[in-house]
Amino acid sequence: MGAPTNPVWGDARPLFDGAAGETLHVGVIDVGSNSVRFVVFDGAARSPAYFYNEKIMCALGAGLSETGRLNPKGRVRAMDALCRFAALARGMGLETMMAVATAAVREAEDGPAFVEEVERKTGLRLQVIPGDEEARLSAQGVLLGWPGSYGLVCDIGGASMELADLANGRVGRRVTSPLGGLKLQEVKGGPKALTKHITDAVARLHEQMDRETGMRLFLVGGSWRAIARVDMDRRQWPLTVLHEYRMTPAAVAATRAHIEGADLNADRKRLGISEDRMALVPVAVQVLDELCRVFRPKDIAISSYGIREGMLYERMPSTLRERDPLLEACRFQESRDARLPGFGRVLFNFVLPLFPGADWQRRRIIEAACLLHDVNWRAHPDYRAETCVDAATRANLGGIKHEERVYLGLALLYRYSSRREGTRFDRLFRLLSDADAREAEVLGRAMRLGAMLWLGAHDAPGAFRWRPEKGTLTLTVEARARPLFGEVAKARLDALAQAMGAVAKVAFTDD
Hints:
This protein is an alpha/beta fold. 48% of the residues lie in helices and 17% in strands. Helix 17 (384-394) packs antiparallel against helix 18. The N and C termini lie far apart (73 Å).
């Protein structure tokens, strides 16, 4: 197989240059101790989507503790996977590839020979990174989705587990440990010895990190995601997007008890978890429970973003890092799919007076809804509202909580429909408080009205005045837009006022 000419890790070509709002198309390969993954990121530079995503479970680090060498079968599987991924990259015409290897290749005595063989056969130059660098990149992956985050990032792999401190959006102290799932399976002496091994290792981590309790714990890694999927199933959680799923230490303890007494083979088949991954769950949940006991986090957030996303964040200029990933993704989708790109911002300014008490977090969700209000117009009219809910709640978006996804979805449902009862989303909408559900309805009905009043993508010929103390909602319409305000617009204004518990008024300005 001829080596590709694609540039790889360490290449000087910048990933992010040019005008604001640019896109990127870049491949990342992550050779881990348990799996080898190839991801192609595409789309908005600050919030790229997964153009391609393939993982092969190779168990490259299995037996490493005993032999000091890479698992022979895993090495063959990993090489086959990397040859496949290099061929895919050439076929996709990728000009930029980044490739990284972590604990197993780092620790194995035959790791350097493996790296050399990979470059000879595929042209991919693997960057073998130390444990503290692995921790830093994983933490930066979290920052890709949550700018300004604070807390503790915990990335578990097959041969190691890393911790990194986040404060004010910056990566601080980080440490590595041998608490990877494959290594834990190889601990001798039975359950008591394993428990002592985990307890001692977590205690050392706590001493090394010197971290106060009560922070947020961000979990990165496939074993954590598998545990979260079991937790969702145990709780009958209606939204199965793993990114930003939240747990508490009490929930972790309950899920550990569930796992210890469950038929894991039946669970993995029902939940779509691979056999290799599920085999690591019992030891991983024991580690997580001990982390919760020692570090006492206030809550736990699952991050689907990790080392691969951190490699992108590493090369972002500060001006790009500071942008909101949610709004960047929504702006990109609007520019690509909306009938009037740019009208989302106009619509946001139009509806914002209806939410005088909205803080910055709610304002960004309102803006996201306005940016997305028209991107599903190609869907069949009978299913357009449902398509909007599906898109909002299931899209690959960063910087948005589960409840905010549902709020966004409900608002977009009301953008196209006057009714929410009896839909297949009833269980989903129960994640919202009554107040949030009412607010989402107001937003959706306001967008539904605003969408009737456009004269152009950058023009809003009307404005709201909301006086809660008097219970009046006044829509002032410029004279040039008088023909737009017919009986349907009047009915939509009345429906909006009713949702707000207000009396609707209309005023027309003079020519």
